[in-house]
């Protein structure tokens, strides 16, 4: 049996976990603990990771090793489950990338951490702004035959598909995916309220990085952001890296979606030496990495994903919300509930545990130890 101790996020009192056979077998509160003891919490869960460190889910030459490198790099930041995210490309490239993720799950740690696959595209807006840095030449309407090819290549791992509901065939695509246990997310869209509502009626239930992948200027009202904010059947992912959303916007969106479901994502991309030296990203082409960590497409100025993980997102959200407990909840419990409907912070849950240090003003939380299914990975 393994015993882990730290400070409870809500009360600050001591919290002791007992772990056996990879599961939490007991939780005990109220023990005395030092005021500088690490916080203890469920591991972070990221539902949108294009790549991280040297690992890239969108590599030109897809491989299982890319995903395994992602898993290990994310574990060092406190992430215990994640969805490798495949973005818009040719049919052949997207299927190969999905297959590489499925192959990677032969590695035990990768299999424990990969909670599924998120496909972002190719049925997104073709307009500048909402399209972001997704390649225009590969934007296309949804095709049920292509969706079936993803389901086959994913070997049961396809969990989320992001699309724009303006395309013809959207309702059929959403219905098909939902029938196969895949959640559909609205994102990178210029769809009107009627089109978004039709997709939700068909079963769409998420918003992808709400407030981003949008026009620089919008009508005051109505517009597709207001529609998604108001739609109670849509839970929303938001990027809290300090670049994608201003603090006031992030705070307002979290408040608006609190009863519908809101969660933090990183939208992280791989940052191998070639990106830093040559400014070329597999998810955005020619990019520039600023000193403050913002990654922008050189030609358009649009953000090309983030180079920050959820350790920074949690710290930023904690400062904005004035609550470390709320910030961690948005990056752990809420996405876990969306994935499988179960609270990860309870007796009987898989022992994905993060112990970390943080105090107000810190730019990131600092993991002290990270356990995946009871096994220490950091």
TrEMBL record:
Entry keywords, A to Z: Carbohydrate metabolism, Hydrolase, Metal-binding
Top-level taxon in the UniProt lineage: Bacteria
InterPro entries reported in the protein's UniProt record: GlcNAc_6-P_deAcase (IPR003764), Metal_Hydrolase (IPR032466)
Gene3D superfamilies xrefs: Metal-dependent hydrolases (3.20.20.140)
Family of this protein: Belongs to the metallo-dependent hydrolases superfamily. NagA family.
Name the UniProt record assigns to this protein: N-acetylglucosamine-6-phosphate deacetylase
Source organism of the structure: Microbacterium arabinogalactanolyticum
């Amino acid at each position: 049996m393994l015993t882990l101790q730290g400070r409870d996020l809500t009360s600050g009192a001591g919290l002791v976990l007992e772990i056996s056979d990879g599961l939490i077998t007991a939780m005990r509160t109220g023990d005395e603990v030092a005021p500088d003891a690490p916080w203890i919490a469920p591991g972070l869960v990221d539902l949108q990771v294009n790549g991280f460190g040297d690992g890239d889910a969108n590599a030109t030459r897809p491989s299982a090793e890319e995903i395994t490198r992602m898993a290990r790099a994310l574990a060092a930041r406190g992430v215990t489950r994640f969805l490798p995210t495949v973005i818009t490309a040719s049919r052949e490239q997207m299927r190969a990338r999905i297959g590489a993720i499925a192959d990677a799950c032969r590695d035990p740690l990768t299999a424990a951490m990969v909670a599924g696959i998120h496909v972002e595209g190719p049925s997104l807006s073709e307009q500048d702004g909402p399209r972001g840095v997704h390649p225009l030449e590969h934007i296309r309407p949804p095709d049920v035959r292509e969706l079936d090819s993803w389901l086959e290549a994913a070997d049961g791992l396809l969990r989320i598909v992001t699309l724009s509901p303006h395309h013809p065939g959207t309702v059929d695509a959403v219905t098909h995916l939902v029938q196969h246990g895949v959640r559909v997310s609205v994102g990178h869209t210029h769809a009107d309220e009627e089109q978004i509502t039709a997709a939700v009626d068909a079963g769409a239930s998420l918003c992808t990085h709400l407030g981003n992948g949008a026009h620089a200027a919008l009508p005051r009202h109505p517009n597709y952001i207001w529609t998604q904010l108001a739609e109670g059947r849509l839970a929303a992912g938001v990027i809290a890296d300090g670049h994608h959303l201003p603090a006031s916007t992030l705070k307002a969106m979290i408040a608006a979606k609190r009863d519908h479901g809101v969660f933090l994502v990183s939208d992280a991309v791989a940052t191998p030496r070639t990106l830093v030296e040559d400014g070329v990203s597999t998810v955005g082409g020619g990019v520039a990495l600023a000193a403050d960590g913002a990654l922008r497409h050189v030609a358009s100025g649009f953000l090309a994903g983030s180079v920050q993980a959820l350790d920074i997102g949690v710290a930023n959200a904690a400062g904005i919300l004035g609550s470390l407990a709320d910030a961690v909840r948005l990056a752990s419990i809420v996405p876990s509930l969306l994935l499988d409907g179960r609270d990860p912070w309870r007796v009987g849950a898989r022992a994905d545990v993060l112990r970390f240090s943080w105090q107000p003003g810190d730019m990131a939380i600092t993991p002290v130890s990270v356990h995946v299914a009871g096994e220490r990975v950091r």
